[in-house]
Amino acid sequence: MKTSIQLMKLLSDDTQWKLAPEDLVVKIGSQLGEVKEVIDLRAKYDGIKVAQIVEVTPHPDADKLNIYQILAGGSQKIQVVSGDTSLSVGDKVAWLAPGATVPSTYGTEQAFVLSVRPLRGHMSHGMFGSGKELDFNDDAASVLKLDTKAEPGTAFAEAYNLDDVIIDIENKMFTHRPDCFGNLGVAREIAGIQGIAFESPDWYSADAKVRPAEHETVKIEVENNIPDLVSRYAAVALEVEIAPSPLWLQSYLRRLGIRPINNVVDITNYVMICTAQPLHAFDFNKVSGSKDKAKIVIRHPKKDEELILLDGKKVRPSEKSMLICNDVEPIALGGMMGGANSDISNNTKRIILESATFDMYQIRRSSMQMGIFTDAVTRFSKGQSPEQCLVVLAKAVEILIKFAGAKVISKVADEYPKKHTNKPIIVSSEFINSRLGSDFTADQIATTLRNVELIVEQSGDELVVTAPFWRRDIEIKEDIVEEVGRLIGYDKLPQSLPQRATSTADVAAIDLLKSKIRNILAGAGANELQTYSFVPAKLMQAVGQQSEHAFSIRNAISPDLQKYRLSITPGLLDKIHPNIKAGFNEFGLFEMNRVHIKGDDDCDGLPREYQTLAFAYAAKKPGQGAPYYVALKHLDYLLKNLNISYKIMPAATQPQWEIGRQVFAPFEPKRSGFIIVNDEFAGFIGEYKIATRKNLKLPDYCAGFEIDVERLLKHQKTSVYKKLLRFPSVEQDICFKVESKTTYGELLDLFTQALTVDAQLHVDVEFLDIYQREQEKSHKQITFRVNLQHPEKTLTNDEVSDLINNAIESVRSKIPAERV
């Protein structure tokens, strides 16, 4: 953000400019923002004076040269030979005396220093400067005729306020301060950090109104179809006379990096560099198909719609771009750049002057998508206040009337459906001091805030602060604390740490559980990942999730990260193929993190947050048995180590978990199950759908689970120490033949319950195998390994046989089953 000390002086009171420029740069760097560059124009225009031509004589030996006699202070005439023969007696010019450097070459390796030299036999003492040589504009063909009232001999820098220093402040320092992208805003801040009260110019007032038309000869109608993105749109029509801008205006634009074009365009740019509010002017006749009416339509682009911009580039606007259109076609990319079909030319007689507020996030998004970076984009992408639209429009109209012969010919069309107002913030000096470590009085704080024109009402220790219309960054009490600290200077605050208790905070129970989970799964050989919380919609679609249930990120850091994830599993699955491609043939991955779903809110109306654990196992070559059982093995190992009992239910049942349907989307229902913890639904386990494997290039041997960590925390049991049993255990393998519809979980529960008839007996039933013969599809065989141990005696073979036989009979009485 380039600022001009002279321009800031025009917009403020001279009392705040007592510091030398070098001291001011240091203060800006310490309290306002990082200074990238300082350009001192004073040396650049040294040796250049305002001169007046008093005699003109054709060069006797050159048709394209004239010999001019000038006065540049005093009565002594000075002779200059020039190739511009259009100059007349009385014209004022910029005379570069011998020893002066041509400004456009100043500071370069090819700096051109003037001297006394003959031109075709006649001595020329220095030269006259063209617009390009003086670095005012791009005209190198003719001498710049000055429009100043300054007397001959006046320093050129004094006549055009070129005794100036340009301070370039890093843009990122003002990201939250759109008002500081104008010289008026920076001038106010410079006053504030010096403890000087700033007063905005009279015209910069919320009550400002555009001058009414003497004769309303045309009408402007605005139709805003996207008010959520274009919160305010104001426009007025004027008759104008296109001509070059006054030189003082061209000079300010040029020194701040903007190329002068004509008076209308230059005035819109000048008002922008003053106030930070971009404006745009359209040729009325090019916009309207009627002599007395123009319609502005604000909308999104239609399919395959294109626009040629002012720079000649043809663009196809992105889907959510904000277009300014007439009845037929787009005429501008809102907030970014005008269209070539509505530009201001030398033949323009009537204009539509636009002042609007565009959504900062959509401006950033469209700018990145189309590669368009303009001064307007820079400012609109910071979030300009809609309250200053008419204020700035009124000022631009006044300048156009003065320097472009403008006449207002319409009423102001002002579409502003949702008026923005800054709310008062109540804060105490104690609140501010406790956070800054300071001891400022309420009076000191109030004065500091009033210096930058914040509205402060004081009642004892309490302050009621209201931000002015150009400030949108002050919303909470902490913003007031920051404002006070910055304006007074953090280097002036006491260098002492705030008093705080030194006792350590207790670790949250869920954090302890997550740490246990990490250790258990890592001990089982799995690898933890941390993937993005934001995922592309196409990843959700690849696993069967519905992206409309996910929150959209309004200002995504990338087009591929625009949705907040519904579950952890898709992100893990997306990493399997790259790892297999990298040469890892078998591995387990897991991640714990938060997920949300749109519409699932808590009692406070906020999105409910779930903490889930996802695990995925993959192998390039199939192992023994189905991959489901590898995932089950990891789940069983995890929950047993957490002392949590569980069971698996068939996936035919409907999930009770609020986000269950989206979490279950990647899994194959016929090869999956629900994880039940203490009769509560907790998650899913299973193999993945064919479509999921195909879309993400997963191997066929792949399975996993996703489970609610908070449910695990709820049902985690405290481990109780049990002494080792002295007597040996007895182990037997039992195989059941059951109907195909009988589930492993159902059989396990029945068999385990039947074995635990003696409360003292230690019973452990471990799953071994499920087998189904090709020729016998109606039945399957399930094998368990039973481990029995008594704390007070050695079990005999008869006791073990009786116990197991009775358990088998108990199972057979409840379901069709036989021992094989």
- How large is the count of helical segments? 24
- Which structural class fits the helix and strand makeup? alpha+beta
Strand order of the largest sheet: 26-29-30-34-33-32-31
The number of distinct β-strands equals 38
State the separation between the terminal residues, measured CA to CA.
85 Å
Approximate shape: elongated
Would you kindly provide a written description of the structure presented here, covering whatever features stand out?
With 820 residues, this protein is α+β, with helices and mostly antiparallel strands. It has 24 helices and 38 strands. A 7-stranded mixed beta sheet has the order 26-29-30-34-33-32-31. Strands 5-4-3-6-9 form a 5-stranded antiparallel beta sheet.
Q: Key features?
A:
820 residues; alpha+beta; seven-stranded mixed beta sheet; five-stranded antiparallel beta sheet; 24 helices; 38 strands; 26% strand
Q: What is the element layout, followed by pairings?
A:
Layout: E1 2-4, H1 5-10, H2 21-31, E2 35-40, H3 41-44, E3 48-58, E4 66-71, E5 77-82, E6 92-96, E7 116-119, E8 122-125, E9 127-128, H4 156-159, E10 165-169, H5 183-193, E11 219-224, E12 230-239, H6 247-255, H7 263-275, E13 279-283, H8 284-287, E14 293-299, E15 307-308, E16 314-315, E17 323-325, E18 330-333, E19 337-338, E20 350-358, H9 360-370, H10 375-380, H11 389-403, E21 407-408, E22 413-415, E23 425-428, H12 429-436, H13 442-451, E24 455-459, E25 462-466, H14 477-488, H15 509-523, E26 527-528, E27 534-535, H16 537-542, E28 563-564, H17 569-573, H18 576-581, E29 586-595, E30 610-619, H19 627-641, E31 647-650, H20 660-664, E32 667-677, E33 680-688, H21 690-695, E34 701-708, H22 709-715, E35 730-739, H23 744-755, E36 762-771, E37 779-789, H24 797-812, E38 817-819
Parallel strand pairs: 11-14, 26-29
Antiparallel strand pairs: 1-10, 2-10, 3-4, 3-6, 4-5, 6-9, 7-8, 12-20, 12-21, 12-22, 13-20, 14-17, 15-16, 17-18, 18-19, 23-25, 24-25, 27-28, 29-30, 30-34, 31-32, 32-33, 33-34, 35-37, 35-38, 36-37
